[in-house]
Amino acid sequence: MGIGETSEPGSRAGWLVGFLALIGAVSAGCGSTGAPSGQKSTIVSGDLYQVGPLRVLLRPQPEVEFICRLHSQQQAASSGRILGCYVPAERAIIATPDAHVLLHEFKHYFEGPFHD
After folding, report:
1. Triad 71, 72, 78: Cα angle to 5°
2. β-strand 92-95 against 54-58: which pairing, if any?
3. Residues 22-63: pLDDT tens digits?
4. On the CB side of 43, how many CA atoms lie within 13 Å of its CA?
5. Hey, where are the domains in the chain?
6. Residue of 57, 30, 29, 33 lying closest to 43 (CA atoms)
């Protein structure tokens, strides 16, 4: 088995919580974020996590696509699937529970005022 792979059914969610905690620790350590050091990610409810100043909602792909289309000014091509989005006005990431998608959306967050 590779890193992050276990045979337990709930282990994927545990891995994602650990990943979100890591991102929270990294963002809390940056002087530019204004977050107090030692801040950790917390589970707000079920699939909603608080990571530093961000809220992260993990949902299945059809729900993510629906929510992101509601918040987006741009519409993806009808053949494209939306796996996640960053909503700067709400400081929120809506994504599928996939580490690559989460990294991509955190990249948008760290791009800063480009999105505002």
Report:
1. 120
2. parallel
3. 555 544 444 444 444 455 667 777 789 999 999 999 999 999
4. 10
5. 11-114
6. 57
